Sequence to fold (260 residues):
Amino acid sequence: MSVTLRVWRQAGPAEPGKFVEYQAKNCNPNMSFLEMLDVVNDELVHAGEEPIAFAHDCREGICGTCSLVIDGKPHGPHKGIASCQTYMRSFADGAVITVEPFRAKPFPVIKDLVTDRSAFDKIQQSGGFISIRTGAAPDANSIPVPKDNAELAMDAAACIGCGACVAACKNASAMLFVAAKVSQFALLPQGQPERAKRVLAMVGKMDELGFGSCTNQYECSAACPKQISHDFIARLNREYIKATFSTAFKPVSEAGGGAG
Fold:
């Protein structure tokens, strides 16, 4: 099969970008979309042209690095898979395929299809962890966890931080990402001591970095390669409200301040 690619080319963050057409001929229908780009890049290098820059790592749908918008959809036409798991058999022979980077102000383009998603790292670093000393690893059954909570926490922890939720949202909201990272700890006993501090810090950092607000369009969960449910956003809102009130009504001695 053969397809025509309309690829976004941009030399750098401060440079103007444009779509450039390339022909991908004699593609094996069973090759992945990234393998097809590898073949196109080999041809460009042999022709003395600059190859297309795109991000990739594991190519197994685990790392979340392959951030491509394919025909207007983050990660491509299918649900529940990343760009690296999209195969050429998903497209018709002779199709014209548009390939773009994730579009969001907090994800500036570095080059071509590569974006800087370190904003997610900054949100994670602001509170997406457990810092209390727990000693040695406990036995698996020493801390009882309700089955429903354990399964929900595992569902939230499946988030790979790819940013498809932000790219799909018309407001470039990171609420689904933050909701998953907050919920995976809020549902477990180990996450309770820093529960309020965590959600306030992560939501605050998200707002500081310029992500938009959530208006419940649910495009985020539709585009998520791990199918993280938008129900976690409702959980995040509840966690945030509870943390806000618990902090506001703490005794002065606990809040760490006093009258001047």
